[in-house]
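Notes to self after the Tuesday call (sharing in case useful).
The group wants a holo model before anyone commits to mutagenesis around the pocket. I volunteered. Ligand is magnesium ion. Logging inputs and output together so the record is complete.
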Amino acid sequence: MPADASSAAPKRARILALANQKGGVGKTTTTINLGTALAATGKRVLIVDNDPQGNASTGLGIGRTDRGAGTYELLFGETTVAASVRGTSIPKLFIVTASADLSGAELELVELERREFRLRDALAHVVADYDYILIDCPPALGLLTLNALAAADSVLVPLQCEFYALEGLSQLIRTIERVKRTFNPSLEIQGVVLTMFDRRNNLSDMVAADVRGFFGEKVYETVIPRNVRVSEAPSHGKPVLLYDLKSAGAQAYIHLAGEVLKRERNRQSVHG
Ligand SMILES: Nc1ncnc2c1ncn2[C@@H]1O[C@H](COP(=O)(O)OP(=O)(O)O)[C@@H](O)[C@H]1O
Ligand SMILES: [Mg+2]
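Result:
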């Protein structure tokens, strides 16, 4: 291969949906901090806040009153990514915020043409502008999550280390399989990340073992510990990597980013 062949190939962002229909499992925390860690390695990263709660936007310091057009307008063709994207305090990390109207989108989308493809169509215009696009999903398997799964190359599933971690997961897997069969045949699971691991609690170990038994190598080696700095960071409008880089939580997310990048490199070498 000539030396410049790979640089001549147009860049195409890898799109990861962070999904789990359970709330409070670490989707948003993982979106923000994985996004920050990827940006810190020099990747250009876009976060799409696809949850009406808008926690990814708030967690990156963009308050509710401070948001213009966002994901709602994007889904309804009233704006473009280029027109609505915002910078963050992290170089190379960008966000399309969730607007208040997004809570109505789930119902309003039903009537629309290409209702599952609205996000994919909108992102198609910017895939050459980013290395990674991370979509933070709401805690449901409705049309907002379907739009994310239809747009994504792969899914990253955060699982909280609690007794009911695996409950409801078969429903998520079935949804992913259905999206594969119907509108996105190449969709894969990038990996499963165990979050809020408490090493003083034997239950965490048991849950982790269970999840590894079920998902095998799909589970990342990196486990995100329960760490108070992680939970404090959003109220300061910062990723934990900025709030307290030395904290166990920040370090874990840096490791996770390394694993995600490694899987992407391996995938590339297999698929060419
Ligand atoms: N590793 C962690 N350690 C401590 N608290 C965490 C950790 N990860 C997430 N949290 C907290 O748990 C809550 C739920 O996390 P969040 O990322 O918002 O979940 P989801 O987006 O799946 O609803 C938030 O208050 C968040 O700050
Ligand atoms: Mg969330």
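Two things stood out.
The chain has one domain: 14-271.
Confidence is low (pLDDT under 50) at residues 1-5.
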